[in-house]
Amino acid sequence: MDNSGKINKTLEKWLSSRILYISIFFGILISWLTKNVYSDILFGSMKYHDKTLLTQFFYFVFFTILSSIFILLIQKISSKIPKNKSNISDKLDKIFGRSFLRDSLNNLIYALVLLIFGFSLIFFINNILIKINTTTWSYDFSSFIPIELPVGLDFRVGSYRPAQNLIMTNFKHIALDGTYFSIYPPLVSLINIPYLMFNENTAYFVHSILIFLSNIGCIAIVSIIAHSTIIKKIRIDKINNSFITITLFFILLFYTLSSYSFVFAIERGQTDVFALLFSLLSILFFIKKPDNIWLQVCFLSIAVHLKIYPAVLFLLLFVKHGRRLFFPAITINLIFLFILGPRMAFDFLQTLTSGSGIGAGIGNRWTWVGNHSAYSFADTLARESSNYSLNLYILWPIFTLIAIELWFAATYILFKNFSSQNAVLFFMVSISIMDLVPTISMDYRLVILSSAALLLIALIIKRIIENPSFFDYFQLGVVMLILLFIGRPYEMSDIDRYALSENASFFLNNKFLWSLSLEAIMVWNIFNNRKNSEIELKKTDL
Q1: Quick check: 52 and 385 in contact, CB under 8 A?
Q2: What is the pLDDT of residue 6?
Q3: pLDDT, position 140
Q4: Which among 10, 465, 513 is positioned nearest to 243, based on CA atoms?
Q5: Is the distance from CB of 404 to CB of 483 less than 8 angstroms?
Q6: What gap in Å lies between CA 413 and CA 71, rounded to an integer?
Q7: Would you say 302 and 310 are in contact if contact means Cβ atoms under 8 Å apart?
Q8: Lowest-pLDDT range, 40-49, 59-68, 170-179?
Q9: Which carries the bigger pLDDT value, residue 141 or residue 148?
Q10: Short-list 515, 516, 531, CA closest to 463
Q11: How many Å is the maximal CA-CA distance in the chain?
């Protein structure tokens, strides 16, 4: 085996290591709980929250690494002691009893009970407990999202009025003054024309109903995909397989419709779920009708022209179809881009890359706690530093590359042994890229993570039933903890609805680190799934 092969094997071994996972989790927990202690030691009277966000972040990361290494070393030393060569997860397995863990039906019941309890707790904390005002000890009915008037402002400005102006100017402009003020492609204005059958307020109600139904549709389609590629392969009877799928559908649907991001999407009239719906339809036909390239490309192209970021999924179609993809993909996307003429197409591209006004380029004005993109996260940290520009251009690539490197590592593994299940897992991990990499990623986009979460939970349940350990229950709990914070509204300031309250932590309230953590767990499970598949294959060969 050459050096590159050895490096890849070592990397895969570490990335699928349970003890590394546990060490990092408890390293983060210890570092966060003791942040004021090490702040007092290093800075004396200066408290942790008094320092700049950039300083807070780097000290937290530094002490997390130290804590994780310390836990890892303790485990390594412990494993060297004679008669003590089991890891933490194995010891907990023995405590809970192997008979408990080896019963597939019991494991299924316990996993689903844990999920139902966990997501019920998420609902209680995020929708009820958070509204209890501990200062006045009253139940606070005030909004937990930054309301703009009139309701559905993004829909009115970005969808309804451009379509209206398009008709009024005989399909020449989306604004009466001839400018292209939207960051949405020309196709969006065209497909919004049916809304003009209603007045603006009624159209918003219709739009809200479509958002609601699309969320249900997305969870339904991803449940079908999960069933056919993951759950159906679990070595258990078909009735229980169907029961798992139905349970996951209702749990994730309940989580999505009760989440802060869904309410935010309804309030603004945002359409990320439409892009996800067409992406899922493309993936569904990719699995059910693998040779129908035009249908797959058509659905995915609509998704791309609704929100652009689903373009990453064209890589999946390229791996499957190769050069045959080029003609339908180029043809359909050029038609969509130039559907209202070349001038409008080029004006759209210019607006999209602009850093001023409503543009999404570098220097855009959309940074706030409710924008959880890598760019916005870096921009927030850099703003309090003495050299803003330098720190922004250092931090933004770092945070973006972390998300991309995790995605690339998973993609490399998945495409080495291409299959329908691996295609679905690629879609799962790509949702994180769609969420984190664009420079603008408002919290209403978080609804797309529910589909990824369903696939991830299905993969974990498969492991719990087929090769159970206490660790799998542990990571199921970690996933629900992350989803708790992803679905939780930020602590809004009484003075500025786009700002945090005075004592609130930016790192807990901004969703970047939580979305990135969910991606990291996806990647770990992808590596571990491959490792387990190789073990099963060897057993079969024997």
Answers
A1: yes
A2: 57
A3: 77
A4: 465
A5: no
A6: 28
A7: no
A8: 40-49
A9: 148
A10: 531
A11: 83
- Degrees to nearest 5, angle at CA 418 with 416 and 424: 120
Cα separation, 283 vs 420, whole angstroms: 10
Residues in contact with 278: Cβ distance below 8 Å, sequence separation at least 6, in sequence order: 299, 300, 302, 303, 306, 310
Which residues does 295 contact at the CB level (< 8 Å), separation at least 6? 285, 289
Q: What is the mean pLDDT of residues 437-462?
A: 97
Closest CA to 272 of 480, 444, 53, 27: 444
Picking from 512, 439, 399, the residue whose alpha carbon sits closest to that of residue 183 is 439
User: Nearest Cα to 11, choosing from 469, 452, 412, 534?
Assistant: 412
Secondary element (H or E) of residue 254: helix 238-257
Helical spans, DSSP H, in 16-168: 18-33, 35-43, 53-80, 88-96, 98-102, 104-127, 153-155, 161-168
C-alpha to C-alpha distance for 444 and 273, rounded to whole angstroms: 9
pTM of the complete model = 0.91
The confidence score (pLDDT) of residue 145 equals: 84
* φ, ψ for residue 351, nearest 5 deg: -65, -40
Q: 132 — phi, psi (to 5°)?
A: -85, 115
Task: Show the 3-state SS of 319-355.
Answer: HHHHHHHHHHHHHHHHHHHCCCCHHHHHHHHHHHHCC
Based on C-alpha coordinates, what's the Rg of the chain?
24
Of 437, 434, 409, 423, residue with least CA distance to 524: 409
- Distance (Å, whole) CA 445 – CA 435: 7
Q: pLDDT tens digits for 458-467?
A: 999 999 998 8
- Residue 542: which pLDDT band, with cuts at 50, 70 and 90? very low
Give yes or no for a contact between 213 and 271, defined as CB atoms under 8 angstroms apart. Answer: no
